[in-house]
Amino acid sequence: MDDDDAPDQALADFKTRNLGGWGVAQIAAGTGLAVYAMWVGIIQPGFRKVPLKLQVPYMPASKAQVNNVMTLLRGRKGGLVDLGSGDGRIVLEAHRQGFTPAIGYELNPWLVSLSRFHAWRAGHHEKVSYRREDLWKVDMTKCKNITVFLAPSVLSLLQQKLQAELPDDALVVAGRFPFTEWTPCRIEGHGVDRAWAYSMQALRQHTFDQNDNITVTDGDSELTKEN
Ligand SMILES: C[S@@+](CC[C@H](N)C(=O)[O-])C[C@H]1O[C@@H](n2cnc3c(N)ncnc32)[C@H](O)[C@@H]1O
């Protein structure tokens, strides 16, 4: 056989060869290992200290979702914080819409670098901030505009943190998944691109109204008036 024919012959051999059970098992194991390595090395690094039930995978917001989030923030001023900022698209758009400072908190170092690259490419790298921090450790007491796109499993826990720390004039906007125990003040969009806005003041007022049991003293007895 001519030397030039060797690659063609090898390819033909490969195509006709029967892999057999052992070959299939090797390919399956190799693929599984590659997927696992990608998950550990690229998609989920930085999450080792985060309990499994609080780990949320990366999935970027769609263009329509970003637009819906921004529509709900229209008329608001000041800073904005995106909790779990992914590749930084919400933060970048918020900066374009005039929010200053616009800050993203993200645990995955690859995504933090990617966000910085996107901001640099857009010429805004000095105006936005991407921090590699665990969102559960962020002090929210001075945040006025907050965006989240996180799994439903963590939203009820996050709700408690936000309710405890945010100022009254804060607005929370959730993309894709709502806070099921909160009543939104506005909703924008449809289907998977939908976004919900929650006013902290309205939520606290609502809770207050529900718990607003006034104790009235009537002679010797005490009456409780329930709203
Ligand atoms: C569904 S993605 C949303 C990305 C981005 N906000 C967007 O709308 O395109 C959720 C992001 O939250 C990040 N994340 C999850 N848990 C986190 C935590 N405890 N601290 C910081 N970031 C976290 C994930 O790495 C992921 O990038």
Automatic annotation (TrEMBL):
The keyword Transmembrane helix applies. Gene3D superfamilies: Vaccinia Virus protein VP39 (3.40.50.150). One of its GO terms (molecular function) is protein-lysine N-methyltransferase activity. Keywords: Membrane, Methyltransferase, S-adenosyl-L-methionine, Transferase, Transmembrane, Transmembrane helix. GO terms for biological process: methylation; regulation of mitochondrial ATP synthesis coupled proton transport. GO terms for cellular component: mitochondrion. It comes from the Eukaryota. The chain crosses the membrane at residues 20-43. PANTHER family: ADENINE NUCLEOTIDE TRANSLOCASE LYSINE N-METHYLTRANSFERASE, METHYLTRANSFERASE DOMAIN-CONTAINING PROTEIN. Belongs to the ANT/ATPSC lysine N-methyltransferase family. This is Adenine nucleotide translocase lysine methyltransferase. The gene is antkmt.
